[in-house]
Amino acid sequence: MRTKKWGAAAACLALAFAVSAFASCAASDNGGGFGADMFEAGYAAGPAPGGDTYGDEGDGQGEDSVLPLPGQLTAGAWDDNRNYAFFKSLFESAPVLSDDGQTREEAGIFSSYQSSEKAFDEASAWGMSVLNRLEVSVADASGAPAAGATVTLDLGEAGSVSAISGADGKAYLFPKTDAAEYAVFAGYGDARTAAVRTDEGSCFVTLEETRAWSGLDLCFMIDTTGSMGDELRYLQSEVADVIERVTTELSETDIALAFVFYRDEGDEYKVKSSDFTSDIAAQQRVLASESASGGGDTPEAVHEALQEVLGLSWREGTRKILIPVLDAPPHDVPENGQDMRSEYGRLVYTAAERGLACIPVVASGTDALTQYLMRSTALLTGGKYVFLTDDSGIGYSHERPAVGEFTVEYLNSCLVRLIGELYDGRERPAVDYRQESAGA
User: Fold this and answer.
1) How much is the average pLDDT of 292-317?
2) 97 in a structural domain
3) Distance, CA of 313 to CA of 219 (rounded, Å)
4) Which residues does 240 contact at the CB level (< 8 Å), separation at least 6?
5) How many CB atoms are located within 10 Å of the residue 338 CB?
């Protein structure tokens, strides 16, 4: 059974739920972020979870419990398309100086999944050819970014790959094979305008017709297995706040919201969903009713959840954003003779083709494989990668991903910022969580 121990911080939180222990816990400084300052920040107390680990029994919390107040989880965001050379370096070996003064070659953190020094390996790469990118810039006659256009890379007999241009007019295409001759086209509907190669690995195309998004379709795909129990209630609160803030910021936008929750084989459910609706209040109640339970092993039903996501009622012409929230990878063992690794990549390519920009949010316990899969998912779909950090003192330990410098933000503010950028293309500055707290 895969579980996460709470540690001192969460143990103190559990004690704080008991009225008799509230005063002593609030007055203490336990180093985990759950002292008096945390209660002043506003944790709304609810029933305590049962036990110091999360397993099949879950956290014992459902729709009647009270969520923590939002603005507590901390996170960082990283854009691998903007830092593509850095991303590719994670697959390469580099010289490292040992303690004894000797130099040795150290494999890149992602080198076991695919290598720039060998032919594309469908299985080990999980079906995603992330080292072979073509960036296409789509603009209107005035030179302004053209969003929502279908961009296709035609490789002749080798097939084709498509993506949808974002609010910044960029589309990223990742073919699984090299071709000396290829053509790139962009347009709306059946219209096709040829692109011009501007540089190695990039093209530009100007369209006579441009269109605006007809609305925003926002879907959260959330892992609710037992290992998520140390942070799920906080995540529910943060997500609820994100939804409220996005609907306020984009008040003139037609917004539809959906949820997909998943666990694993043998659990109370494997996948369940609440399809797109403009009834935001009803969806908020659906979110609040979830609790963490089950799991059984490290991999979870990510394949099945993503397949469910693709089957939802996404609307034509909308900006489509998917936010997976998870801490574990999909299963990799062959199922009915099918290698599940390559199947994951097929689903991601389908998401990119339909214009689903992914913003994965990874929680505590995330390993290198999950980091590779989620960063590649964001890369292929023109999204961003988000990871929780230890700065909040909440939950289990969070390993720093292999990224460059980033700003530690509050998770809710980070997601509101990224959703806004993906919708309208206007960059918003990342605000350090300490600065945001000081200005509150």
Assistant:
1) 91
2) no
3) 11
4) 67, 70, 284, 287, 288
5) 9
In the chain, how many domains are there? 2
**How far apart are alpha carbons 367 and 198 in whole angstroms?**
38
* Integer Cα distance of 182 and 237 in angstroms: 48
With CA atoms as reference, report the closest residue to 385 among 75, 73, 77: 77
Residue 159 within a domain? no
Q: What is the CATH number of the domain that holds 416?
A: 3.40.50.410
d(CA 292, CA 223) in angstroms, rounded, equals 8
Residue 156 clears pLDDT 50, i.e. is over it: yes
Q: Is the pLDDT of residue 259 over 70?
A: yes
What is the residue-wise DSSP string for 303-350? Answer: HHHHHHHHTS-PPTTSEEEEEEEESSPBP-S-BTTB-HHHHHHHHHHH
> What does the alpha-carbon distance between residue 394 and residue 384 come to, in Å, rounded to a whole number?
23
Range of the domain at 30: 7-41
CB 350 within 8 A of CB 325: no
Assigned domain for 356 exists = yes
**pLDDT tops 50 at residue 21:** no
What tokens appear for 154 in the block?
């035609």
Count other Cβ atoms within 10 Å, centred on residue 385: 24
Question: Quick one: which of 424, 413, 433 has its CA closest to 239?
Answer: 413
Q: What percent of the chain has pLDDT over 90?
A: 67
Q: Could you tell me if residue 153 is inside a domain? A: no
The predicted-structure confidence for 39-78, as pLDDT tens digits, reads as follows 233 333 332 222 222 233 344 444 446 779 999 999 999 9
Find the Cα–Cα–Cα–Cα dihedral 186, 350, 258, 300, rounded to 10°. Answer: -150
- DSSP letter string over 219-267? EEEEE-SGGGTTTHHHHHHHHHHHHHHHHHHTTTS-EEEEEEEE--TTS
pTM assigned to the model: 0.85
Residue 41 has a pLDDT of 35
Residue carrying structure tokens 């810039």 = 137
